[in-house]
Amino acid sequence: MQKRRSPPWGAIEAFIVASRRATSFKDAASQLALSPAAFSRRIQMLEEHVGVKLFNRVGQTPTLTAAGVRYLQRLEPSYEAMRAATEWMAPDAERRALRLGMSQSFAVSWLVPRLPDFYKKCQGIELVIQTCADNVELAGGAADLRILYGHGDWPNFTSQKLFDLEAFVVSPPVLLDGTPAPKSIEDLQDVPLLELIHPRNQWSEWLSQAGYTAPLREPRYFDSAQVMYEAASQGLGVALGVFPLVDSFLQSGRLQIAFESSQPLSGAYHLAALPEVRRHPAVQILWHWLINDPSCIVFSELKNLAS
Protein backbone atom coordinates (compact mmCIF):
# COMPACT_ATOMS: atom_id res chain seq x y z
CA MET A 1 0.00 0.00 0.00
CA GLN A 2 1.43 3.36 -1.03
CA LYS A 3 1.88 5.81 1.82
CA ARG A 4 0.12 9.13 1.48
CA ARG A 5 2.53 12.04 1.49
CA SER A 6 2.16 14.75 4.11
CA PRO A 7 0.99 18.14 2.79
CA PRO A 8 3.73 20.74 2.27
CA TRP A 9 4.54 22.86 5.31
CA GLY A 10 3.95 26.05 3.34
CA ALA A 11 0.39 24.99 2.53
CA ILE A 12 -0.35 24.18 6.17
CA GLU A 13 1.08 27.52 7.30
CA ALA A 14 -1.04 29.34 4.70
CA PHE A 15 -4.16 27.56 5.95
CA ILE A 16 -3.42 28.44 9.60
CA VAL A 17 -2.75 32.11 8.82
CA ALA A 18 -5.88 32.42 6.67
CA SER A 19 -7.96 30.84 9.44
CA ARG A 20 -6.77 33.25 12.13
CA ARG A 21 -8.81 36.40 11.61
CA ALA A 22 -7.35 37.27 8.20
CA THR A 23 -9.70 39.69 6.44
CA SER A 24 -8.87 38.25 3.01
CA PHE A 25 -6.46 35.91 1.25
CA LYS A 26 -4.60 39.06 0.19
CA ASP A 27 -4.21 40.07 3.84
CA ALA A 28 -3.07 36.55 4.79
CA ALA A 29 -0.62 36.50 1.87
CA SER A 30 0.99 39.74 3.04
CA GLN A 31 1.58 38.20 6.48
CA LEU A 32 3.66 35.48 4.81
CA ALA A 33 5.32 37.86 2.31
CA LEU A 34 3.66 36.04 -0.60
CA SER A 35 1.80 37.30 -3.63
CA PRO A 36 -1.98 36.67 -3.51
CA ALA A 37 -1.63 34.26 -6.43
CA ALA A 38 1.10 32.23 -4.70
CA PHE A 39 -0.92 32.15 -1.49
CA SER A 40 -4.06 30.96 -3.30
CA ARG A 41 -2.04 28.18 -4.96
CA ARG A 42 -0.95 26.94 -1.53
CA ILE A 43 -4.54 26.82 -0.28
CA GLN A 44 -5.65 25.07 -3.47
CA MET A 45 -2.80 22.56 -3.12
CA LEU A 46 -3.88 21.74 0.44
CA GLU A 47 -7.55 21.35 -0.55
CA GLU A 48 -6.54 18.99 -3.34
CA HIS A 49 -4.39 17.03 -0.92
CA VAL A 50 -7.10 16.54 1.74
CA GLY A 51 -9.84 16.13 -0.86
CA VAL A 52 -12.33 18.62 0.60
CA LYS A 53 -13.08 22.32 0.31
CA LEU A 54 -11.67 24.17 3.33
CA PHE A 55 -12.83 27.74 2.64
CA ASN A 56 -15.99 29.40 1.41
CA ARG A 57 -14.86 32.02 -1.08
CA VAL A 58 -18.02 34.13 -1.22
CA GLY A 59 -17.35 37.83 -0.70
CA GLN A 60 -14.11 39.49 0.37
CA THR A 61 -13.56 37.57 3.63
CA PRO A 62 -12.92 33.81 3.35
CA THR A 63 -14.71 31.67 5.92
CA LEU A 64 -13.99 28.10 6.94
CA THR A 65 -16.28 25.34 5.78
CA ALA A 66 -17.44 22.76 8.33
CA ALA A 67 -14.62 20.51 7.13
CA GLY A 68 -12.19 23.42 7.46
CA VAL A 69 -13.24 24.01 11.07
CA ARG A 70 -12.68 20.33 11.94
CA TYR A 71 -9.32 20.33 10.17
CA LEU A 72 -8.18 23.47 12.01
CA GLN A 73 -9.15 22.00 15.39
CA ARG A 74 -7.04 18.91 14.71
CA LEU A 75 -4.16 20.69 13.00
CA GLU A 76 -3.61 23.78 15.14
CA PRO A 77 -2.21 22.07 18.29
CA SER A 78 0.40 20.21 16.20
CA TYR A 79 1.26 23.38 14.32
CA GLU A 80 1.79 25.24 17.60
CA ALA A 81 3.86 22.35 18.94
CA MET A 82 6.24 22.57 15.97
CA ARG A 83 6.36 26.36 16.16
CA ALA A 84 7.08 26.34 19.90
CA ALA A 85 9.75 23.65 19.59
CA THR A 86 11.49 25.69 16.90
CA GLU A 87 11.35 28.87 18.99
CA TRP A 88 12.89 27.14 21.99
CA MET A 89 15.79 25.90 19.84
CA ALA A 90 16.74 29.48 18.97
CA PRO A 91 19.99 30.81 20.52
CA ASP A 92 18.17 33.61 22.37
CA ALA A 93 15.42 31.35 23.81
CA GLU A 94 16.96 31.66 27.27
CA ARG A 95 16.20 35.39 27.24
CA ARG A 96 12.74 35.24 25.68
CA ALA A 97 9.74 36.20 27.80
CA LEU A 98 7.58 33.30 28.97
CA ARG A 99 3.96 33.44 27.82
CA LEU A 100 1.42 32.21 30.37
CA GLY A 101 -2.10 31.71 29.03
CA MET A 102 -5.36 31.46 30.97
CA SER A 103 -8.89 32.83 31.04
CA GLN A 104 -9.22 36.51 31.81
CA SER A 105 -11.36 35.75 34.87
CA PHE A 106 -8.71 33.41 36.28
CA ALA A 107 -5.96 35.94 35.60
CA VAL A 108 -7.81 38.74 37.39
CA SER A 109 -8.97 36.72 40.39
CA TRP A 110 -6.08 34.30 40.97
CA LEU A 111 -2.88 35.26 39.19
CA VAL A 112 -2.69 39.05 39.48
CA PRO A 113 -2.81 39.09 43.33
CA ARG A 114 0.12 36.63 43.30
CA LEU A 115 2.34 38.45 40.81
CA PRO A 116 4.26 40.45 43.46
CA ASP A 117 5.41 37.13 44.94
CA PHE A 118 6.44 35.90 41.47
CA TYR A 119 8.48 39.03 40.75
CA LYS A 120 10.19 38.67 44.12
CA LYS A 121 11.00 34.95 43.88
CA CYS A 122 11.55 34.54 40.13
CA GLN A 123 13.73 37.52 39.29
CA GLY A 124 15.19 37.44 35.81
CA ILE A 125 12.17 35.75 34.22
CA GLU A 126 10.05 38.04 32.07
CA LEU A 127 6.40 37.02 32.04
CA VAL A 128 3.72 37.88 29.48
CA ILE A 129 0.12 37.13 30.49
CA GLN A 130 -2.12 36.05 27.61
CA THR A 131 -5.86 35.72 28.22
CA CYS A 132 -8.63 34.06 26.26
CA ALA A 133 -12.24 33.21 27.08
CA ASP A 134 -12.32 29.97 25.10
CA ASN A 135 -10.56 26.86 26.43
CA VAL A 136 -10.14 25.41 22.92
CA GLU A 137 -8.51 28.57 21.59
CA LEU A 138 -6.36 28.76 24.71
CA ALA A 139 -5.12 25.19 24.20
CA GLY A 140 -4.30 25.95 20.56
CA GLY A 141 -2.72 29.35 21.14
CA ALA A 142 0.89 30.48 21.33
CA ALA A 143 1.37 30.40 25.12
CA ASP A 144 4.31 28.45 26.58
CA LEU A 145 2.34 27.43 29.67
CA ARG A 146 -1.43 27.32 30.00
CA ILE A 147 -3.84 27.08 32.89
CA LEU A 148 -6.75 25.06 31.54
CA TYR A 149 -10.00 23.82 33.04
CA GLY A 150 -10.81 20.18 32.36
CA HIS A 151 -9.66 16.65 33.11
CA GLY A 152 -6.00 16.88 32.14
CA ASP A 153 -6.38 14.90 28.90
CA TRP A 154 -5.32 17.46 26.28
CA PRO A 155 -3.51 15.93 23.26
CA ASN A 156 0.18 16.82 22.86
CA PHE A 157 0.43 18.42 26.33
CA THR A 158 1.94 17.31 29.60
CA SER A 159 -0.18 18.57 32.48
CA GLN A 160 -0.37 18.67 36.27
CA LYS A 161 -3.40 19.45 38.41
CA LEU A 162 -3.31 22.86 40.05
CA PHE A 163 -6.38 22.38 42.25
CA ASP A 164 -9.85 20.82 42.34
CA LEU A 165 -13.03 22.87 42.48
CA GLU A 166 -16.15 22.91 44.60
CA ALA A 167 -19.21 24.91 43.59
CA PHE A 168 -21.81 26.63 45.74
CA VAL A 169 -24.76 28.91 45.00
CA VAL A 170 -24.06 32.65 45.18
CA SER A 171 -26.66 35.38 45.08
CA PRO A 172 -27.21 39.05 45.90
CA PRO A 173 -29.35 39.67 49.01
CA VAL A 174 -32.32 40.55 46.78
CA LEU A 175 -32.78 40.00 43.06
CA LEU A 176 -33.67 42.78 40.66
CA ASP A 177 -37.37 41.84 40.59
CA GLY A 178 -37.58 41.85 44.38
CA THR A 179 -37.30 38.08 44.82
CA PRO A 180 -35.27 37.29 47.96
CA ALA A 181 -32.10 35.23 47.75
CA PRO A 182 -32.76 31.47 47.70
CA LYS A 183 -32.44 29.81 51.10
CA SER A 184 -32.59 26.20 49.90
CA ILE A 185 -32.11 24.17 46.75
CA GLU A 186 -35.89 24.10 46.24
CA ASP A 187 -35.93 27.92 46.05
CA LEU A 188 -33.89 27.74 42.84
CA GLN A 189 -37.18 27.06 41.05
CA ASP A 190 -38.10 30.72 41.56
CA VAL A 191 -34.96 32.51 40.37
CA PRO A 192 -33.07 32.95 37.08
CA LEU A 193 -29.90 30.85 36.79
CA LEU A 194 -26.68 32.25 35.32
CA GLU A 195 -24.16 29.88 33.72
CA LEU A 196 -20.92 29.89 31.73
CA ILE A 197 -20.78 28.77 28.12
CA HIS A 198 -17.60 26.89 29.02
CA PRO A 199 -17.48 24.72 31.00
CA ARG A 200 -21.09 24.07 30.05
CA ASN A 201 -23.76 22.24 32.08
CA GLN A 202 -22.25 23.01 35.48
CA TRP A 203 -25.72 23.59 36.91
CA SER A 204 -26.84 20.15 35.72
CA GLU A 205 -23.72 18.56 37.21
CA TRP A 206 -24.12 20.43 40.50
CA LEU A 207 -27.81 19.56 40.86
CA SER A 208 -27.10 15.91 40.06
CA GLN A 209 -24.38 15.82 42.72
CA ALA A 210 -26.85 17.35 45.19
CA GLY A 211 -29.46 14.69 44.34
CA TYR A 212 -31.98 17.21 43.00
CA THR A 213 -33.85 16.13 39.85
CA ALA A 214 -36.70 18.64 39.45
CA PRO A 215 -36.38 20.71 36.24
CA LEU A 216 -35.27 24.33 36.58
CA ARG A 217 -35.31 27.32 34.26
CA GLU A 218 -33.06 27.46 31.20
CA PRO A 219 -29.91 29.36 32.29
CA ARG A 220 -28.76 32.69 30.93
CA TYR A 221 -25.28 32.19 29.45
CA PHE A 222 -22.03 34.17 29.71
CA ASP A 223 -18.54 33.59 28.30
CA SER A 224 -16.78 35.23 31.27
CA ALA A 225 -17.04 34.32 34.94
CA GLN A 226 -16.31 37.90 35.96
CA VAL A 227 -19.17 39.21 33.80
CA MET A 228 -21.48 36.46 35.08
CA TYR A 229 -20.74 37.32 38.73
CA GLU A 230 -21.14 41.01 37.98
CA ALA A 231 -24.57 40.27 36.48
CA ALA A 232 -25.48 38.24 39.56
CA SER A 233 -24.34 41.02 41.89
CA GLN A 234 -26.68 43.41 40.06
CA GLY A 235 -29.62 41.10 40.73
CA LEU A 236 -30.02 39.41 37.35
CA GLY A 237 -29.92 35.89 38.81
CA VAL A 238 -27.96 33.40 40.88
CA ALA A 239 -24.79 31.61 39.84
CA LEU A 240 -22.50 28.80 40.89
CA GLY A 241 -19.56 30.22 42.76
CA VAL A 242 -16.13 28.63 42.55
CA PHE A 243 -12.86 29.66 44.08
CA PRO A 244 -10.93 31.63 43.00
CA LEU A 245 -13.21 33.31 40.48
CA VAL A 246 -15.90 34.52 42.90
CA ASP A 247 -13.59 35.36 45.81
CA SER A 248 -13.54 39.16 45.42
CA PHE A 249 -17.33 39.34 45.07
CA LEU A 250 -17.78 37.47 48.36
CA GLN A 251 -15.17 39.51 50.20
CA SER A 252 -16.77 42.78 49.09
CA GLY A 253 -20.26 41.58 50.07
CA ARG A 254 -21.63 42.07 46.57
CA LEU A 255 -22.51 38.38 46.53
CA GLN A 256 -23.21 35.95 49.35
CA ILE A 257 -23.28 32.19 49.66
CA ALA A 258 -27.01 31.54 49.44
CA PHE A 259 -27.14 28.34 51.49
CA GLU A 260 -24.77 25.67 52.76
CA SER A 261 -24.53 23.14 49.95
CA SER A 262 -21.20 22.76 48.15
CA GLN A 263 -20.62 20.07 45.54
CA PRO A 264 -17.37 18.97 43.85
CA LEU A 265 -17.05 19.57 40.12
CA SER A 266 -15.62 16.90 37.84
CA GLY A 267 -13.17 19.31 36.20
CA ALA A 268 -10.13 20.98 37.74
CA TYR A 269 -7.57 23.63 36.88
CA HIS A 270 -4.37 22.21 35.35
CA LEU A 271 -1.02 23.53 34.25
CA ALA A 272 -0.25 22.36 30.72
CA ALA A 273 2.68 22.72 28.33
CA LEU A 274 4.26 20.94 25.40
CA PRO A 275 6.82 18.38 26.65
CA GLU A 276 9.76 20.08 24.94
CA VAL A 277 8.76 23.45 26.44
CA ARG A 278 8.15 21.91 29.87
CA ARG A 279 11.81 20.83 30.05
CA HIS A 280 13.18 24.37 29.63
CA PRO A 281 14.82 25.66 32.86
CA ALA A 282 12.87 28.94 32.99
CA VAL A 283 9.60 27.10 32.37
CA GLN A 284 10.43 24.67 35.18
CA ILE A 285 10.94 27.58 37.58
CA LEU A 286 7.59 29.14 36.63
CA TRP A 287 5.88 25.74 36.80
CA HIS A 288 7.28 25.08 40.28
CA TRP A 289 6.19 28.52 41.50
CA LEU A 290 2.63 28.02 40.21
CA ILE A 291 2.25 24.51 41.65
CA ASN A 292 3.74 25.40 45.04
CA ASP A 293 1.97 28.72 45.56
CA PRO A 294 1.12 28.68 49.30
CA SER A 295 -1.62 31.30 49.22
CA CYS A 296 -4.42 29.19 47.73
CA ILE A 297 -7.60 29.60 49.75
CA VAL A 298 -9.56 26.39 50.25
CA PHE A 299 -13.34 26.35 50.10
CA SER A 300 -13.74 25.85 53.84
CA GLU A 301 -12.19 29.28 54.40
CA LEU A 302 -14.64 30.89 52.00
CA LYS A 303 -17.61 29.66 54.03
CA ASN A 304 -16.77 32.25 56.68
CA LEU A 305 -17.54 34.97 54.15
CA ALA A 306 -21.21 33.98 54.15
CA SER A 307 -21.72 34.96 57.78
From TrEMBL:
Coiled coil: none annotated. Residues 7-65 form the HTH lysR-type domain. It comes from the Bacteria. Transmembrane segments: none annotated. Keywords: DNA-binding, Transcription, Transcription regulation. The keyword Transcription regulation applies. One of its GO terms (biological process) is DNA-templated transcription. GO terms for molecular function: DNA-binding transcription factor activity; sequence-specific DNA binding. Belongs to the LysR transcriptional regulatory family. This is LysR family transcriptional regulator. The lineage of its organism: Bacteria, Pseudomonadati, Pseudomonadota, Gammaproteobacteria, Moraxellales.
